Amino acid sequence: NTNDETAFYLERSTNGLTNWTAIGNIRANATKYWVTDLTCNSTSYYRVRALRADGQFSNASNILTVTTQPCSQPAPRAFLVNSTSDSSDGTCTIQNCTLREAITEANANTGSNIIVFNLTGNAPYTIQPLLPLPLITSPMTIDGTSQPGYTAAPLIIVNGDLVPPAQPGTEPTRVGINITGGGTTVSGLVINGWDYGGVSIMNSGGNVIKGNYIGTDATGNTAVPNLNGVIIYESSNNVIGGETVAAHNVISGNMDDGVKIIGTSEQNLVSGNSIFANGHLGIDLGTYRSEIGDML
């Protein structure tokens, strides 16, 4: 009940009465926060207090009771990326979690997990891996739209400029988001500067790529090219874009194709995107020899 808050503090208790512990410092005007250290078959109690401009706390909010799933069913987890660095100590924690660590842990955890973001500082936020990010081998969602401040355009850049290039005489292999496990959704990212592809989908299908800028900067207007925007190799039933405005990708500025479909890849839907100003084709259907140029 205050209108001059500078931050919010999320507090948790195991009994809803005593021993309230602050587990999150949330910026003013934020509307959501991901709690990532929950355990199965447990009940916790949460409340929020606002830190006012005068340095005093408001009264606590009403208490929210949360009970998690029974342990007999492996529960999907949320992994909260809160660092733009590329370090990895093997653990994604509330104190420090990089995108590399989040993908590694999501691959290892049973269930369809979600990777969300709470990066601090001034947008856009740039993640520059020093080596290719891990292959995505398990179903997961990488949700750039979860970043506080997101409205309609991506705020998080995954850029490949610092990844060492392929050796002379060899094919380029650097890919921004590299999916092999199927059932994965990637949304709300800027993916640029990769010498083979912004996104690669190989073998397992059922993936969705939506609401991303692939081959541009964070404005969607200036080219920061990948070699190809999206590559689909021997994979079927994927969706690039979608029917809603929020699902549309901007795929532009890439040196070769905007979307390259290779091999016996069938029933892939490329719909509603802005695909333009790529070096070769907007959509290349490859071995089927049906090629569609840039579409606006």
Would you write up a description of this structure?
There is one protein chain. This protein has one helix at 99-108; strands at residues 5-13, 21-27, 43-52, 64-67, 78-81, 113-117, 125-127, 140-143, 156-159, 175-179, 185-187, 189-192, 197-202, 208-210, 213-214, 228-233, 239-241, 250-252, 259-262, 269-271, 274-276, 283-284, 291-292. The longest helix has 10 residues, at 99-108. The strands form four sheets. A seven-stranded parallel beta sheet has the order 5-6-8-11-14-17-20, with helices on one face. It has a six-stranded parallel beta sheet with strand order 7-9-12-15-18-21, with no helix packed on it. With 296 residues, the protein is mostly beta strands. Helices cover 3% and strands 33% of the residues. The protein is built from one helix and 23 strands. It is globular. A hairpin with a 6-residue loop joins β22 and β23.
CA radius of gyration? 21 Å
Shape: globular
- Beta-strand share of residues: 25-35%
Order of helices and strands: EEEEEHEEEEEEEEEEEEEEEEEE
Total of DSSP H or I helical runs spanning 4+ residues: 1
Structural class: mainly beta
Sketch the major β-sheet.
Answer: 7 strands, parallel
- Helical content stands at under 10%
Task: Say how many strands there are.
Answer: 23
What separation lies between the terminal Cα atoms?
47 Å
Kindly report the average pLDDT value.
89
Strand order of the largest sheet: 5-6-8-11-14-17-20
Question: Poorly predicted ranges (pLDDT <50, ≥5 residues)?
Answer: 288-296
